[in-house]
Design a protein that fits this description.
The chain has helices at 24-32, 74-87, 106-117, 153-163, 201-212, 225-232, 246-252, 262-270, 273-279, 307-320, 354-366, 374-381, 385-389, and strands at 12-18, 50-56, 60-66, 93-99, 122-127, 142-144, 183-187, 216-220, 238-241, 259-261, 291-295, 325-329, 341-346, 371-373. It is of the alpha/beta class. The strands form 3 sheets. Strands 2-3-1-4-5-6 form a 6-stranded mixed sheet, with helices on both faces. The protein has a 4-stranded parallel sheet with strand order 8-7-9-10, with helices on both faces. The two termini are 40 Å apart.
Amino acid sequence: MGLNATPSAERVHIGIFGKRNAGKSSLINALTGQDLAIVSDIAGTTTDPVSKAMELLPLGPVVMIDTPGLDDEGELGAQRVRKAMQVMNKCDLAVVVIDAVEGQTEAHEQLLARLAAKNIPHVVAMNKCDLLASVPADTEEIRYVSAADGTGIYALKEKIAHLVPSGDNGRRIVADLIAPNDFVVLVVPIDSAAPKGRLILPQQQTIRDILEAGATSIVCRETELAATLAKLGQPPRMVITDSQAFASVSKDTPENVPLTSFSILFARYKGRLEQTVRGVKALDTLQDGDAVLISEGCTHHRQCDDIGTVKLPRWIEQYTGKKLDYHFTSGGAFPDDLSPYKLIVHCGGCMLNEREMKYRLAYAEDSGVPMTNYGILISYIHGILGRAVEPLGLEL
């Protein structure tokens, strides 16, 4: 993704659902004007959800998600259908593609009911309408289209655009906590785990949010923080640190200067901060052999001192004194059954959109499993959680 591209997690996610051979992939190509999806007359060509970030006028930056057919068969087909259903958890809106010749079936009705239950805006695209003797008029919920000859594609795109809530939803990473001309110090460790030549996405997005607030960001490593603060001549409005450096940064940041982390800010930006703060207290109830899920929203090369698979388990065991059973997921993977776990520790979710992150939190809550966040857990272990969430308006 280029430097000027909208991050995938900030794009509108559009899921394309339907039976095999309904023309889902063909419709994606017709909507985008590009050959993004493989098209074949063989049923079941799309075997896994396929995502493509792109521009869809008049909507703007989107992620189109082509899904396997909901009528796929056999044991492998059932797994594909389950993956298609999981796509709903990240969809901001959905297009249900129906073969106009076959018409709506009970399977489609079940799909539409599921979308309605999840409060996902959706439209029905009756594809292959060019094969009908006469084409019915569009309704509020249905658009008659033909991916083959382009009939109704423009009207469908306009309908999709109008399904997305208009205007700014008011979510901010940090801009609502600062004022124009404030100084904000960002602490960014540069170690073996840091990407070469660039900042990670939460750091980039936080800097952009600070700029849009009319404030000034000052970036340094944890080893230069004390000297940086001394040279400022006035206390900064806030210090924001990478969670892994919480202990040393807290020592070098005066008590009168608000302190938090990128991960905690994203817990508020993407999800439910209060829930993740409550969830961390489950650390104090863990027993030997308890299962702990550590989940990351991205996939990356694991290094020798990886935070998710190495550092967090080490810190948790040092704090609890217990031998625990750790499980790990990354990217789009998240367990269907959370009942085995006594605690879920999730990353900030910068690579997940708001809907998917909130789905995971709600699913954990419904399953009765405490869920917390990397930064919240690390600050809790170091005894500074109260200080780390106070700038966000929470008191422990």
